[in-house]
């Protein structure tokens, strides 16, 4: 009976009336098939072969969930990792969007072989949640030069009527180096969360990727990536999502290495109707510099990442600003020690348009200590300023964040 109903519709439109779409074949990057016009889930996209993007997830029809995007293939030698496939759209009436596929690992042989970006999550239709963004791939490279990680995919939008938006995908980490060279790879940036329609909560921003480590005698660690922004709550009701945290600076395990900077946190999502706004993400600490008394001048510690700003609210409490990361310590040296890194700035608290509490500002990061030297010690890093508290029309304002201490 069902085959008899589906056959003419399939021949005319290329998709059935009722039924799930076929999954794409892994290793081909084939897209998932679309679900039936009336009912059916979209098929998942197939993973990509090396150097090939993942297939997109299939879309649902009237009712059903979108298929997940396929993972991107690992990068070929001297090439970037392939991107993950996008998630399929949820049903026009009801259904969730599919998750985005993860990005592939970067190839070997060059510091340009960044990790693949994560695929974006699929959007919902009228009622349903947006899909989560895919994670970014880890950077590739060579032993003396690391490549950066891929960015996380953005979350899908929630339903126009009801539904939460999807979270942003986490970013890929930068590749480290094991031989003397310029620097490790930087962490990718976290994906931004999707937006919502009338009723629903905004998704959370993806975390920034960590910078690559150094295990050679000389080299620079990678900087941390920035966290993604949280999504806004619904126009009528819903909370804003939190901003993603900044990625950590790479670890300097070598004899001589400057300190990398920590990643900044993403901003919190706004509450556009009734609801609480999202908090800003935290900034990551800067890395300590490394050196020994056989060198004349010490290297400088990395700067701490700034905290993200809190989201604004209309009726409800605003989001708090994110705390900032501390600065890294300067390296010790034979003549003059290295300077400490500066602490990051705390995020500002969000404001309230009508009724509610203003958001508190985030605390500033402490400055790093200067390194010791036989003649001169390194200068201490400055503490970062705290974020300002948010205002409110009919409610108490937020408190300002504490300033970070100097090193």
Automatic annotation (TrEMBL):
Q: Where are the stretches annotated Disordered?
A: 133-152, 369-407
InterPro entries tied to this protein: PGRS_rpt (IPR048996)
Query: Which Pfam families does the record match to this protein?
Result: PGRS
In this chain, composition skew of type Gly residues spans 380-392
Instruction: Tell me where on the tree of life, at the top rank, the source sits.
Output: Bacteria
Q: What name goes with this protein? A: PE-PGRS family protein
Which species is listed as the source?
Answer: Mycobacterium canettii (strain CIPT 140010059)
Gene name of the record? PE_PGRS45
């Amino acid at each position: 009976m069902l085959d008899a109903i589906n056959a003419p519709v399939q021949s005319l439109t290329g998709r059935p009336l009722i039924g799930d779409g076929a999954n794409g074949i892994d290793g081909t990057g084939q897209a998932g098939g679309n679900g039936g016009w009336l009912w059916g889930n979209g098929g998942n996209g197939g993973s990509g072969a090396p150097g090939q993007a993942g297939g997109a997830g299939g879309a649902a029809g009237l009712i059903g969930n979108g298929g997940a995007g396929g993972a991107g293939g690992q990068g070929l030698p001297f090439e970037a990792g392939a991107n993950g496939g996008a998630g399929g759209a949820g049903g026009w009436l009801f259904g969730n969007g599919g998750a985005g596929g993860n990005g592939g690992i970067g190839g070997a042989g060059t510091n340009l072989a960044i990790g693949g970006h994560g695929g974006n999550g699929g959007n919902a239709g009228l009622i349903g949640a947006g899909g989560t963004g895919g994670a970014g791939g880890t950077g590739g490279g060579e032993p003396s030069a690391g490549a950066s990680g891929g960015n996380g995919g953005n979350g899908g939008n929630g339903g126009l009527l009801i539904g939460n938006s999807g979270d942003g995908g986490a970013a890929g980490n930068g590749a480290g180096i094991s031989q003397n060279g310029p620097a490790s790879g930087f962490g990718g940036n976290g994906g931004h969360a999707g937006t919502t329609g009338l009723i629903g909560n905004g998704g959370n921003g993806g975390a920034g990727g960590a910078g690559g480590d150094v295990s050679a005698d000389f080299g620079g660690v990678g900087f941390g990536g920035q966290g993604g922004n949280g999504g806004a709550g619904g126009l009528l009701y819903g909370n804003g999502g939190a901003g993603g945290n900044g990625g950590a600076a790479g670890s300097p395990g070598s004899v001589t290495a400057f300190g990398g900077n920590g990643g900044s946190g993403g901003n919190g999502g706004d509450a556009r109707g009734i609801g609480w706004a999202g908090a800003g993400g935290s900034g990551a600490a800067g890395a300590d510099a490394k050196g020994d008394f056989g060198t004349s001048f010490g290297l400088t510690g990395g700067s701490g990442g700034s905290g993200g700003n809190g989201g604004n609210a209309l009726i409800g409490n605003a989001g708090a600003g994110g705390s900032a990361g501390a600065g890294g310590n300067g390296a010790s040296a034979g003549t003059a020690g290295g300077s400490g890194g500066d602490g990051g700035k705390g995020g500002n608290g969000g404001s309230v348009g009508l009724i509610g509490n203003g958001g508190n500002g985030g605390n500033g990061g402490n400055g790093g200590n200067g390194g010791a030297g036989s003649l001169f010690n390194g200068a201490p890093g400055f503490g970062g300023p705290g974020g300002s508290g948010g205002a409110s029309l009919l409610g108490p304002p937020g408190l300002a964040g504490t300033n970070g201490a100097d090193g």
